[in-house]
Write a structure and sequence with these properties.
Layout lengths: L13 E5 L7 E7 L2 E10 L13 E8 L11 H4 L3 H15 L11 E10 L4 H22 L12 E9 L2 E4 L3 H6 L2 E8 L4 E8 L6 H18 L8
Parallel strand pairs: 4-5
Antiparallel strand pairs: 1-2, 2-3, 3-5, 6-7, 6-8, 8-9
Helix pairs in contact: 2-3
């Protein structure tokens, strides 16, 4: 039995709280079970050097875990330096969030998305993408309110969820206990129109059959479909 007596295709309880960082241009606290991630967006009136004078914007992300987010204290990466895992997650978040808007409609602005894990119980990168997208949506609306954009550009909703194979069964939205014992671990990023943005899937013990991948993808599509309901909430 899964924790909380969840069925194989059930998400953990999830919620978002907007405006938790008043100094940010957009901010969201997203909760997926016991995984809690604070996502804040800062709008900068400049772009990276490779985009200078090209008339388009940029979205980038930084990710980190607070020392007590896990069962044993993790060392701050400000002291130890960024790990390869953190670099990889930051790039994944940035790539995913850049899919939600035509960057040529942002002017020469950079949206810097900070994703800080307050509590980790599996799926932190997926929660960061889902919450980060909602925070970007909020920041863009504020840019229009403040005259930094002439109009809100069309937005493509983005959400992410994990899936895996645990004890031979495909399951959705793995918590830490499931993730640490999974035979297959996967992360799926999807757009609101049903297209895949990125898929990461790894066999932990041995190769797995295509049918299991298809089952995980179907679970993920259902899960992200529920998360897209968050786009109807007001930020």
């Amino acid at each position: 039995m899964r924790s909380g007596e969840r069925s194989a295709d059930a998400l953990r309880p999830f919620s978002v709280e907007y405006g938790v960082q008043p100094h940010a241009d957009g901010s969201v606290l997203i909760r997926m079970g016991n995984t809690h991630v604070l996502c804040g967006v800062t709008v900068e009136d400049r772009v990276p050097p490779f985009l200078k004078d090209k008339g388009q914007g940029w979205i980038t992300a930084e990710y980190g875990m607070l020392p007590c987010a896990t069962h044993s204290r993790g060392r701050r990466e400000a002291v130890s330096g960024l790990s390869g895992r953190t670099h990889e997650i930051q790039r994944l978040i940035g790539r995913s969030l850049r899919m939600m808007v035509d960057l040529s409609l942002l002017g020469e602005h950079t949206l810097r998305v900070d994703c800080d894990v307050l509590n980790a119980d599996g799926g932190t990168r997926c929660a960061s993408i889902t919450g980060g997208a909602l925070a970007v949506k909020m920041a863009l609306a504020r840019m229009v309110e403040r005259g930094r954009l002439p109009a809100l550009p069309p937005l493509l909703p983005v959400a992410a969820i994990s899936a895996g194979v645990v004890a031979g069964q495909p399951v959705l939205d793995l918590d830490y206990a499931e993730d640490s014992s999974a035979e297959v671990d996967a992360n799926f990023v999807m757009s609101g129109d049903g297209r895949w943005i990125e898929v990461q899937s790894t066999a932990e013990g041995g190769p797995f059959h295509p049918q299991l991948f298809t089952a995980m993808a179907e679970l993920a599509a259902r899960g992200t479909g529920q998360l897209f309901g968050l786009w109807e909430t007001r930020g």
